[in-house]
Specification:
mainly alpha
Amino acid sequence: MDLDVFVTAHRAEWDRLDQLLRRGRRLTGAEADELVALYQRTATHLSLIQSTAPDPALTTRLTQLVARARATVTGARRATWRDAARFLTAGFPAAVYRSRRWWIPTAILSTLLAAVIGWWIGAHPEIQSAIAAPDELRRMTRPGGEYETYYSSHPAASFAAQVWTNNAQAAAMCLVLGAFLCLPVVWILFVNVLNLGVGIGLMSSAGRLDIFLGLILPHGLLELTAVFVAAGTGLRLGWTLIDPGPYSRRTAMAQQGRAALGMAIGLALVLFVSGLIEGFVTPSGLPTWARIAVGVAAEAAFLCYVYILGGRAVREGETGDVEAADRSAELPVAA
């Protein structure tokens, strides 16, 4: 395509569209119809230019023109309760379901690594002595020690709020920092796994691993699942930067980024539930089996939510992205 000839042929249409947009709401019925027609033609022109003869300056101008026209034609849409219901019943579970090939291996490998670290620390006293002095280790692992009193050291409500805030921040960092080629996500995940492995190793060396698991499992099942989902999604986002697939890198990153943003909101809700369990159930006087049963029930409910609602939504075409009317049209990519 000869770009100069194309611009000469259509410049008057673009100028006319810009003129109509500047007039805002002061349009007659015929002018409004003309604006819609010019918007559609200009969007087609932009698609042709980007796919066959990309020119940065012209592409920028037409992109801005199409965006302004789209906003004028479609108008601003306010979020409604229908949007919230769609997000909770379709968008969020579908996004988690579609990311399962990333977060399930992440969960398995992280759990195995935590177990290996725990065994290594528990079987080697010299490693334990490098972590802390013997008296300090005894204070942490003895009955009524720091590992046990940690969950009841603050009022339940404030402790739950603090835990939720910390975990939500960690999950959000995994989602956001995934764009930096996955490396920050790997580090955040390793720190969490290392802390878990140290607890397993120290408590097992003191012969009190059952107590530790009884304190961790009620809230930890759901909490760690949320962290693994966030980490897996962050890794997927980082890999999209490396391999965007059939889309342009910008389009692919926009799709995955919007889905990741929605998942950050959804995972904050999941972590809120785990925070409530950690604040009110873990330090409660319930028998260990009852506390673990609460954690297992919460984990099972979340997995059913993802696989039943999310799987069904994905089969119906849901991607976890915003609705088509609220996102820019995808332009073809040159072969």
